[in-house]
């Protein structure tokens, strides 16, 4: 499965990664590579639990256009 994640640096220089398709899936790392590795593990573990409980694996996400 493929998921879109957001990556940003916080005020302490840590990379924070979030997967909006799975509520609450957020992780971080000292480097971008570490943060991405951590979010992959977090997503994998979450999907396993959701599957065991018969829950949907993700929620719907959409890209919308906003005019400024």
Give your account of this protein's structure:
This protein has 68 residues and is of the alpha+beta class. It has a domain at 6-52. Helices cover 31% and strands 21% of the residues. The protein contains 1 helix and 3 strands. It has a 3-stranded antiparallel sheet with strand order 1-2-3, with helices on one face. Strand 1 and strand 2 (15-19) form a beta hairpin. The longest helix has 21 residues, at 32-52. The chain is flat, with a radius of gyration of 14 Å. It starts with 5 loop residues before the first strand and ends in a 16-residue tail after the last helix. The mean pLDDT is 92.
List keywords for this structure.
single chain, 68 residues, alpha+beta, 3-stranded antiparallel β-sheet, 1 helix, 3 strands, flat
Record the SSE blueprint.
Blueprint: E1 6-9, E2 15-19, E3 25-29, H1 32-52
Antiparallel strand pairs: 1-2, 2-3
Short description:
This protein is an alpha+beta fold and 68 residues long. It has one helix and three strands, in the order βββα.
Mean pLDDT: 92
Shape: flat
Helices and strands, in order, run as: EEEH
Q: How many beta-strand elements?
A: 3
